[in-house]
Design goal:
Helix content: 10-25%
CATH class of the largest domain: Alpha Beta
Strand content: 35-45%
Radius of gyration: 24 Å
CATH architecture of the largest domain: 3-Layer(aba) Sandwich
Shape: elongated
Strand order of the largest sheet: 6-7-8-3-9-10
Distance between the termini: 34 Å
Largest sheet: 6 strands, mixed
Number of strands: 22
Length: about 350
């Protein structure tokens, strides 16, 4: 797939703090890209630099073969959907969507019939038919999100930047809008770059997922690779589905403060050694149970469990006082009960672990 956007060694600094530290990436055309990262990692700053709302101290941005980092935002051909939607409260749904066509600095459309036709087509695309005359105060959060998206898409940008577009919606709306955003993008045939702090959202939506960590791109790849093979302890920790143990590799073992684990999983290079095992790869057994062939594990004290509907998450205390989490999917097995403060053996296949050293 041909790349539509190339970013080379972008640096953005606020005083002594670097919000972006030599970021480089290429984004394919006609695709959905998720940009995932913790708060303060530089996600929104990167979006604003691409859009032209912020000027970088160093680096270049090329879009569709043309350098754009020296251009004003309205000259870049890139749309931006703000987190708070930034709609005009004194205008109707229809007027909000058509605003960019009639008021843009480059080639405004002055033909009222053409504007009406374009707005009507966009309203049908995003599912707002029948709400054209409504005031912004009279529509729901999900409908406001669609208006903001339609207002951007009606100007026919070649790329759309979305700054946590689902963050202001309730849980049910967020879930339904995921598929809606993907459907709309596919029909428009443009690239969406979607910033989010939710690992679930990023993995569910992105054809490609970028992980931003401490002002740098830590990893990029498809959702399956990011989820199953995070490239560093930091990425694994942010995915919120891995237990991480500190320690060191000694021969065929990983020696940690909570026990010695025999190795057999994927080894990756990292500055700080760590051992990672996913929550749902661990089984809980009696303290006296033996390990099976190809298994390793540790002993721990049960603290409490949390019911989430489709799963039960059990929490255990390790020897060093850290907490170890186990996820049991209820579709696989009926819920188990454990005795508070009792000791259990936690076991998993050696090949399921990720070792960073």
């Amino acid at each position: 797939m041909t790349a539509v956007l190339h970013i080379r060694n972008i640096v953005k600094q606020y005083g002594e703090a670097r919000a972006l530290d030599g970021v480089s990436l290429s984004l394919p055309g006609d695709s959905y890209i998720s940009l995932l990262g913790p708060s303060g990692s530089g996600k929104t700053t990167l979006l604003r630099v691409i859009a032209g709302f912020e000027r970088p101290e160093a680096g270049e941005i090329h879009f569709q073969g043309k350098r754009i980092d020296t251009l004003a935002p309205h000259e870049r051909g890139i749309g931006f959907v703000f987190q708070n939607f930034a709609l005009f409260p004194h205008l109707s749904v229809e007027q909000n969507i058509g605003f960019g066509l009639t008021n843009r600095a480059v080639d405004p459309i002055l033909d009222d019939a053409l504007v009406t036709r374009r707005v009507k087509d966009m309203i049908a695309l995003v599912g707002l038919k029948g709400l054209e005359g409504r005031a912004i105060s009279q529509i729901s959060g999900g409908q406001k999100q669609r208006v903001a998206l339609a207002r951007t898409l009606v100007t026919e940008p070649k790329m759309v930047l979305l700054d946590e577009p689902l963050g202001a919606l309730d849980a049910n709306l967020r879930t339904s809008m995921r598929s809606e955003l993907r459907r709309i993008r596919e029909r428009c045939g443009v690239t969406f770059l979607h910033v989010t702090g939710s690992e679930t959202e990023a993995l569910a939506m992105g054809d490609t997922v970028l992980v931003l960590e401490r002002a740098r791109i830590a990893q990029h790849g498809d959702a399956d690779t990011i989820y199953n093979r995070p490239c560093s302890p930091a990425v694994a920790r942010f995915l919120n589905c891995y237990n991480l143990l500190s320690g060191r590799v000694e021969g065929e073992n990983f020696v940690s403060p909570v026990g010695t684990l025999s190795l057999g999983g994927l080894h990756q290079k990292a500055a700080n050694p760590a051992y990672a095992i996913r929550y749902d790869r661990v089984s809980i057994r009696s303290e006296t149970a033996s390990l099976g062939e190809g298994e390793t594990g540790i002993e721990a004290t049960f603290i409490t469990s949390e019911y989430t509907g489709s799963a039960v998450n059990a929490f255990f205390m390790l020897a060093d006082g850290s907490v170890f989490e186990v996820e049991q999917h209820l579709s696989h097995t009926p819920p188990s009960t454990f005795e508070p403060q009792a000791r259990y053996r936690l076991a998993w296949k050696r090949e399921d672990a990720l070792v960073y050293a």
